[in-house]
Amino acid sequence: AQKITQTQPGMFVQEKEAVTLDCTYDTSDPSYGLFWYKQPSSGEMIFLIYQGSYDQQNATEGRYSLNFQKARKSANLVISASQLGDSAMYFCAMREGYYTGRRALTFGSGTRLQVQP
Amino acid sequence: NAGVTQTPKFQVLKTGQSMTLQCAQDMNHNSMYWYRQDPGMGLRLIYYSASEGTTDKGEVPNGYNVSRLNKREFSLRLESAAPSQTSVYFCASSDRGPDQPQHFGDGTRLSIL
Lengths: 117, 113
Prior knowledge:
The structure holds two protein chains of two kinds. By secondary structure, chain A is mainly β. Chain A is 0% helix and 50% strand. Chain A contains no helices and twelve strands. The radius of gyration of chain A is 14 Å and the shape is globular. Chain B is mainly beta. Chain B has strands at residues 4-7, 10-13, 19-25, 31-37, 43-49, 56-57, 64-68, 74-78, 87-94, 103-104, 108-112. In chain B, strands 2, 4, 5, 6, 9, 10 and 11 form a seven-stranded mixed beta sheet that branches. In chain B, strands 1-3-8-7 form a four-stranded antiparallel beta sheet, with no helix packed on it. In chain B, strand 9 (87-94) and strand 10 (103-104) form a beta hairpin. The relative contact order of chain B is 0.33. At the A-B interface, strand 5, strand 6, strand 10 and strand 11 of A face strand 4, strand 5, strand 9 and strand 10 of B.
């Protein structure tokens, strides 16, 4: 089974509107973390936001927020007031088993967001 | 503010050739990672090093070897390159703590003919 599933290969949004990028995950580890990264056309990976499995509140970082629904195993990224510079690939990733020595991330296949003027 | 530095940025190899991708970080991070990204896909873990002196296999280790030379440097070696190893390779590092993100280099675009 896929650990991280991003069901939207591509999304369009109008400038200044909000957009939600979906991410569902699969793990039996009670302690895990979810990360979102942005990859612009230039290729670098930019960290956006983190949500821990024990965090009571949804994470927020500026225009980015995470809609974390633990029972549904979803961690959707919400971008408010979209800007042209938000056009990029967005990856959801999960870290499991940190306290048992694992540190690496498992990535989803990504969603390409295009912001239209 | 160098962060994670990868060399080279681009490389073209012939099948059967060997090469080493270099990675260095200046953030004093304990953990370092090598990922590959194939077209239209997310990153897949090749090898990682939780701390200096240790390395472990990831999801796709076949055809690769790694060396954690010291705390700063983590190299990836292709002993006999194959066309299936054509990809973009990313090195990353992270600090201690489950909430610490991985910081990525700019990637190495590798083509094997």
